[in-house]
Amino acid sequence: MNLNYGFVKCKVVSDPVLKGSHLRKETQYHLHSTLSVPAADGTVQSWDSAINVGTNDADDLLRYILAFDYHGPIIATLKAAPAGYTDLTGTDALPALDFLRTNVLAETGKWRDSDVMDGSGQQEPVLTLQRLLVQAHSTGADVYIFGRTYTEGNGIHDVHMNQGSSGSFINNGEDNHNDHNDIWQDGAVFVDLGQPEWAAYFTAFTQQDVPTDDLGNPTQDSHEIDDDDPGSLAGNQ
Questions:
Q1: Is residue 57 one of the residues assigned to a domain?
Q2: C-alpha span between 108 and 35 (Å, rounded)
Q3: Which of 7, 16, 125, 225 could form a disulfide with 133 if both were Cys (CB 3.0 to 4.6 A apart)?
Q4: Cα–Cα distance between 185 and 95 in angstroms, integer?
Q5: Does any domain span residue 231?
Q6: Which range of residues forms the domain containing residue 37?
Q7: What is the pTM of this model?
Q8: Phi, psi torsion values for 84, nearest 5 degrees
Q9: Is residue 169 helix, strand or coil?
C-alpha cells in the first residue's frame, strides 16, 4: 500500500543543521532546515525537512548525484506547480519520481559514494549540499523537496530512493507500516537558482538493490544501483 508521498514547493528559512539519528546498527545523518510552506487555507506553515546525506557505516553508504546543470523536462511542471504541498500518493507518472521507471536522472552524471560520516559535517555530500541550501536561504530561491510526509507534525523525510530495500522494508502489499518499499515514491531535492539549469540532488543507499518489482521490492537478480540503472525500466509499465 502507498505511503503519503509528494513534494513541497517552498522557501528555506533557516540554514541547514546536520543531525544524526541512530537506526539499528548505524547512525544516519540528515540535513534539517525549516521550510516556509503555504497551505490551502491561505496560511503559511512551518515545516521541517530531513534530507539524507549519509551514515557512519562503511557497509551502508549513500550513493548520490549532485547536478548543478539539471535540465530535465520536469522543470517546467515544477515551475507551474503552486507553492505548498502537492500530494502524489498513488501517482504512477511524473512528477512523481521513480529513478528506474522514468528518465528523471538522464544526463545528470555518475553516482558517487558518500564519505563515511562522523558528525562533523566535513564530508561529502554534506559540504556541497549545505552550501546549496544556504544559498537557497539567502536568495529566497524556490526549493522542491520530494519525499514522504511526517506521520506527526509538518515535515518531509525519506528524501532518497524508496525502493529496493530488504528485511523489514519489504512491501507485502497488505499493511501500511511507516517505512516500506514502493514504486513512484523516490525522494529528491531541486533548487531553482534563477538560471535555465537547476541544481538537483538524488540519493540511494548502497544496500538498496535494483531492479525492483511492482511493489518496489528487489528482484532475484538485483544488484546495487549503478550508472546503467536509472531509467532502465522506463516504458515497461
A1: yes
A2: 26
A3: 16
A4: 10
A5: no
A6: 5-224
A7: 0.96
A8: 120, -165
A9: helix
Q: Which amino acid, 184? A: W
Q: Which three cell numbers stand for residue 113?
A: 559514494
Please report the beta strands in the chain, taking only residues with DSSP state E, as ranges in sequence order: 5-12, 17-23, 26-38, 44-55, 62-70, 84-87, 112-113, 142-149, 155-157, 188-192, 198-205, 209-212, 218-224
Pairing verdict, β 84-87 and 198-205:
unpaired
DSSP 8-state secondary structure symbol assigned to residue 234 = T
- Read off the pLDDT of residues 36-64 as tens digits, 9 standing for 90 and up: 999 989 999 999 999 999 999 999 999 99
63 is written with which cell numbers?
A: 550513493
Whether residue 229 is contained in a domain is answered as: no
Please check whether residue 66 lies inside any domain of the structure.
yes
Written as nine digits, the cell of 220 is 532475484
Grid cell, residue 92, equals: 504512477
Query: Would the CA dihedral through 181, 93, 104, 212 be positive or negative?
Result: positive
The answer to whether the beta carbons of residues 134 and 16 sit under 8 Å apart is yes
Distance CA(9)–CA(83), nearest Å, equals 5
Q: Pick the closest to residue 56 from 12, 24, 14 (CA basis).
A: 24
For 57-96, write each residue's pLDDT tens digit.
Answer: 999 999 999 999 999 999 999 999 999 999 999 999 999 9
